[in-house]
Amino acid sequence: MTVSSSSTASHGSPRAQAATLEFRSATKRYGEQSEPAVDGLSLTVPAGDTCVLVGPSGCGKTTAMRMVNRMIEITEGDILLDERSVRERQPAELRREIGYAIQQIGLFPHLTVAANIAVVPRLLGWDRSRIDARVRELLELVSLEPVTADRYPAQLSGGQRQRVGVARALAADPPLMLMDEPFGAIDPINRERLQNEFLRLQSELRKTVVFVTHDIDEAIKMGDRIAVLRRGGKLAQYASPAELLTYPADEFVEDFVGADRALKRLALQRVRDIDLWRAPTVRSGEPVADVRRKIADADIDMPLLVDDQGRPQGWLSGRGLAGERVRPELRSRAEPLVELDDVLRDALADLIESQVHYSAVVDAEGRLAGVLSVEIVSQALQLPAERAHTGTELAEEERESLTRSEAEPA
Q: For 174-229, how does the pLDDT look when each residue is reduced to its tens digit (9 = 90+)?
């Protein structure tokens, strides 16, 4: 079973299909050791999904991944790529059809960036024009300038080298990619950028990916499915990030995921996924009597001044309602502004950093979409990730406790 990408390569051929990957009781024993490094691993990675192998040091996650391209031979069981055993394939042929990116990157220092990216296409016998087109396409895909093609690895930053490593892994348009802690040696800021860049690429390319990491936060961020391995190479749980955080299979998984797993769930939800509060929106010059009616019908009592396009300007003060018509006298600016596509974790961080009780939420055009509050986030934490939402009933309870008109964001 395969799924096709809708995009095409610049050389005109259709993109390779993503492959289904299946581990069937795959086992690896080294020499005379009684305990296997990987013990009867069975799981299926659907075509186009990212499966993250995670667990403590020595749990066999890298061994399991390297059995896929036969860099480590399987002792028992099997691994199937699109229902065909990898053991039926010649290792060199198999590896040319599987992208591989590692923590150390492994670029050839004596070759230019373009030559590094072109290694596998050359082995496959692609012609020069096709290779050149593919190199240009991939540099653009991983957000590197065209001039980078003629540079050598030593002339690049660590983050740039890692991007080249990903481009090289994608060069022959493989249906499957193996990534062994690809961002582990990068500083935290560039690591987050690279993670986001890869998520963007994966949303476009939809490759089947096996991704190894020891970092559960990275696993939750990167994976469609997560396989938690315990020592001895035994599978402890295989689930979506939401299921893993909400329903850990046992005490080992619960401990590995961490005591803050409820907070980790906030990284799985975006602001648009939950019910936002309704604020009374007002415009300068609007009759105050109309504003009073809006306040009575809204979820919070503080009027939010917006411009003619519906973009938040600030929270209106009591003085702004002192006359017959609204005057643009603000209690505070509409800061921070949260976007609908922000993850809840980042949105909560903005609220805490700004020391406010709630924040206006805007759409891609900057227009008001609702109001996010600390109470809404708290409610989301109390519910399973796949069911987390908030209703206006919570807002009704909170509204009674707010000071009318002059209530300040806390």
A: 999 999 988 876 777 777 778 878 888 888 889 999 999 998 988 988 899 999 99
Kindly state which CATH superfamily the domain 2-259 is placed in: P-loop containing nucleotide triphosphate hydrolases (3.40.50.300)
Question: Residue holding tokens 């290792």?
Answer: 91
Answer whether the bond into residue 280 is a cis peptide, omega within 30°. no
Distances, alpha carbon 78 to alpha carbons 41, 83, 150, in Å: 9, 11, 42
Residue 189, number of CB atoms within 10 A of its CB: 9
| β-pair partners for 229 | 235
- Domain 2-259 and domain 271-401, same fold? Reply is no
What is residue 63's three-state secondary structure? Answer: helix
> Counting beta carbons within 10 angstroms of the beta carbon of residue 251, is it exposed (0 to 12), middle (13 to 18) or buried (19 or more)?
exposed
Q: What angle do CA 100, 58, 255 make, to 5 degrees?
A: 110
Q: Return the pLDDT at 71.
A: 94
Altogether, the residues listed in the chain come to a count of 410
CATH architecture of the domain 271-401 equals: Roll (3.10)
The DSSP bridge pattern shows strands 208-213 and 176-180 to be: parallel
- For tokens 């560039």, name the residue: 190
- What residues does each domain of the chain span? 2-259, 271-401
